[in-house]
């Protein structure tokens, strides 16, 4: 795979950050949802987001997007 540009790495970072923030907010809202069907839909959405997050993380790891020497 070709080396990603700085802009692409930043976009990947922002995408991961947005997904993570979305999951956090959705989890916080679950107790406030009174309708069972809406709660199940929200939980399903959370699971889908978690799968996307894991996919992004796997992509980063498998393609050495962030060399481990740079992680502090």
Task: Describe it.
The structure is a single chain. With 72 residues, this protein is mainly α. The protein has a domain at 16-63. It contains 2 helices and no strands. The chain is elongated, with a radius of gyration of 16 Å. The mean pLDDT is 90.
Instruction: Give the ordered list of helices and strands.
Output: HH
Structural class: mainly alpha
- Which band does the percent of strand residues land in? under 5%
Computed CA radius of gyration, to the nearest angstrom: 16 Å
Helical coverage, percent range: over 70%
What's the average pLDDT? Answer: 90
Low-confidence runs (pLDDT<50, min 5 residues)? none
Q: Given the structure, what is the number of helices?
A: 2
Number of strands: 0
Question: Could you describe the largest sheet, including whether it forms a barrel?
Answer: none
User: For the terminal residues, how far apart are their CA atoms?
Assistant: 25 Å
- Overall shape: elongated
Task: Give the SSE layout.
Layout: H1 6-29, H2 36-62
Provide keyphrases for this structure.
72 residues, 2 helices
What can be said about this structure in brief?
The chain has about 70 residues and is mainly α. It has a domain at about 15-65. The chain contains two helices and no strands.
């Amino acid at each position: 795979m070709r080396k990603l540009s700085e802009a692409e790495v930043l976009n990947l970072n922002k995408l991961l950050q947005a997904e993570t923030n979305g999951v956090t907010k959705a989890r916080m809202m679950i107790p406030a949802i009174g309708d069972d069907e809406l709660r199940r839909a929200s939980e399903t959405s959370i699971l889908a987001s978690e799968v996307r997050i894991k996919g992004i993380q796997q992509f980063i790891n498998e393609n050495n997007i962030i060399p481990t020497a740079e992680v502090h």
